[in-house]
Structure formats: structure tokens, C-alpha cells
Write a structure and sequence with these properties.
Blueprint lengths: L19 E5 L4 H12 L3 E6 L2 H10 L7 E5 L5 H15 L4 E4 L14 H26 L6 E5 L12 H21 L5 E7 L2 E2 L1 H8 L4 H9 L8 E2 H12 L10 E4 L7
Helix pairs in contact: 1-8, 3-4, 4-5
Amino acid sequence: MSISSTPYRSGVLWDFSGQVVLITGGTSGIGLATAKMVLSAGATVFLVGTSQKKGDHAMEVLTAFGERVCFICADVSIVAECERVIQIIEEQFKKLDVVVNSAGVFRSGVIDSVTEEQFDRIMNTNVKGTFFICKYAVPLLKKSRHASIINISSDSGLHGSRECPDYCASKGAVTLLTKALALDLASENIRVNCVCPGDIVTPMLEQECAKQADSDAYLSALTDPYPVGRLGQAEEVASVVCFLASDAASFVTGAAWPIDGGLTAQ
């Protein structure tokens, strides 16, 4: 069984002209797909990632957008790096309209296989990075008429999943952080939402698949629970992120949107 899904038909549905968008984890997967969409809709985008090589590749992929896209090599699991990212954006544009916290890591294994180092890596990237990017971004977002934060949680942030207790804990934290920030920032006209994707065809999923002794059986087991009979695509998540970032969602805040082919409807 190969990793595949139905073709995605994209089109420019939103207008982000003149807006500055920050996307952590923006060099691949959901982050990169989101970058393509908001750039196509007129935004200026800052991508953040830990790998200069991946950043260079993303810049090549997005070369048609010229100077409207910039890469910052930074590790959001380090608080000082989160602050540095926002400082760079403030120095260059003195504004920020949309934050997409897409940086994340995953590992599988039952609780007695989890080391402190592995636990800290997941929590520091998925939770601490999201928290402190939000913290340092808020002063700039307060100046925007379009301020929006979209956190990438997971269906595992809505319900338990087998053999990834540390990942579930991290994404559950992201989901409730989203709701708490939505309440705190509503008076500042900053909307905060999260999306909760199911299994999406991304480099992270492909890497996990490659670790398995029987990748076909692994993929089949992943796909079987989905009522739609397939895995999702990064663009299918990115399109919901773009909606939540847009003025079309101006009355939407504090929401956790499942993007999971009907998985959580069962």
C-alpha cells in the first residue's frame, strides 16, 4: 500500500494582501502548504525551521514569490529563539497579522519506553514553542486589524490515541492553550483557534512509516479507521488554516477544528 490520497484542487479563496504571516515548522508538510496558500493570496511570509537545508529548499519551492517570503533558522523549543524570531519580524516590518504554530514532533511508543529526553523534546517543541511564540507575538498582533493565531493541534489532542501518550499530552495542551488564549485575547481583537488533523500525508508521517517493519500493514492500519477511506493531504489542512486566518472567520475564536475525514464523528 502506498501513501496516497485524492488530488487536491487549489484556488485563491482568501485575500491576505499587505498582511505579515509567521509560520513555524514552515519548511515542509502543513506549514509549507499553508505558506503557499497565503503567499498566493498576497501575504508576506516568515518561515521558521530548525534546518537551514530544509529552509533553503523551501525558499526554492517558493521562489516565484520573491521577496515576500523569508526563512528564519530557529528552534522554537528554546524560549530565546522564540523571542528572536519576533524581534526579526518587528525590525523588518513592525507588524504581524497572523501566526501559524505548525512546528511539531512525534514519536510512537508505550509509556514505559519514553525517556525523559524524548518527553522533553516533544513537550518543548509542541507546547513550549507554541506558548512562547504566542507570548512574544501578542504585542505586535495587538496592532493588527486582522490578528489571528492558528495552532496546529491534532485529533490526538481531542481524544486518546494508542502508543503515543507523550504526544497526546502535548497536543491536548495545545488544544486547551488555544481556548485559554482565545478568552484572554478576545478583548484585544486577537482570535485564537486550532486545527486538529488526523493522519496527514507529510514528511513526518512518511518518516514514521519508514521505521516500521511492515510499512504496508502500518499504512493500512492507519487508514482503516477513517470513514472517507483515505488519509488527508497537507493542503486540506492548510485551506482550513487559511479560512481561520481570514476575515471570513471574524466571529470564530476558541475553536478546535477536527480535520480528520470523519474520524472523531464516530
